[in-house]
Amino acid sequence: xxxxxxxxxxxxxxxSNELDARGLHSLANKLDSIMKKASPLSDEExxxxxxxxxxxxFDYIDKDKWNKLRDILVSKKPSRSxxxxxxxxxxxxxxxxTPGEAEALxxxxxIKEWFDKxxxxxxxxxxxxxxxxxxxxxxxxxxxxxxxxxxxxxYHEIKKDLQEADKLTYWVTISEPLGIVPEDMWDSFPGYDVxxxxxxxxxxxxxxxxxxxxxxxxxxxxxxxxxxxxxxxxTKLGEVIHKFISNNTIPGRRWISFIxxxxxxxxxxxxxxxxxxxxxxxxxxxxxxTAYTKDKDQPxxxxxxxxxEHVGGALKEELDKDA
Length: 323
Known about the structure:
- The chain is α/β, with parallel strands linked by helices.
- It has 2 domains: 1-38; 39-321, no CATH class.
- Helix content is 46%, strand content 11%.
- It has 12 helices and 7 strands.
- It has helices at 6-21, 25-36, 43-48, 63-75, 99-105, 109-120, 150-164, 201-204, 210-217, 227-247, 268-282, 304-321, and strands at residues 90-95, 129-134, 170-175, 179-182, 191-193, 254-260, 289-293.
- The strands form 2 sheets. It has a 5-stranded mixed sheet with strand order 4-3-2-6-7, sandwiched between helices. The protein has a two-stranded parallel sheet with strand order 1-5.
- Helix 6 packs parallel to helix 10.
């Protein structure tokens, strides 16, 4: 099922809430089930369904198969390191597997409520060094997070080591579709799964293998991808980041970023930050900012110790400059 208008989803959510309020929980649950499977593609992506791909040997998936595939993606757990807690729950409404879906998700009431919350958020004034890091598939990210992700475990150890040396840092995550997640909310942000902005088709489909494609559909297909919807989504999230930085820039405060991809790779986080920098420049806001890559430019998968050496070493040098 495809819903092409974000306002339609909002209306369905309102109806579901009203049904719950009236005690009609069974009907509300059925409506919720429909919404979980019905995040809207863009018009461009709808037109791509079932057509020949101009640059891939795998044609675009057709409408019926896409609906089946989306149902599979929504119903399965996003990652082995995506762990639900009392405060953090996976929310199937907050899923997007194409740029069109990601763009529509920005109009979802839960995401709009989050944007309003972030616009009002203020980092305590005692923090003079703000560290920007990318989101991760492992969730949630709090100090006691049960997930197995190495990045955030390293970040917490670095923060603790710096604090023991009387060096205060405040950490902020750059996220799609939330834009910003301050460390105070690392345990309780909305439980999204939005690989839809990844350029790699396999990553957008949550790592679906060729064998899984063959077992499910008899062959592999290309998922739809709307480049213009991608650009609009990145720009909108850049604006959210810009507003947060503008509201939290004070004299004597510096921002240190570990957003950049390694080996020259341009990630969605990099592009979101680049858009934010354009907004900041046009607003004539003084933004003391130093940018690093998220890991060393070395072969092999990043390890916790390597992340700590790279990020921790750079932060120690940066903070020593201001000592």
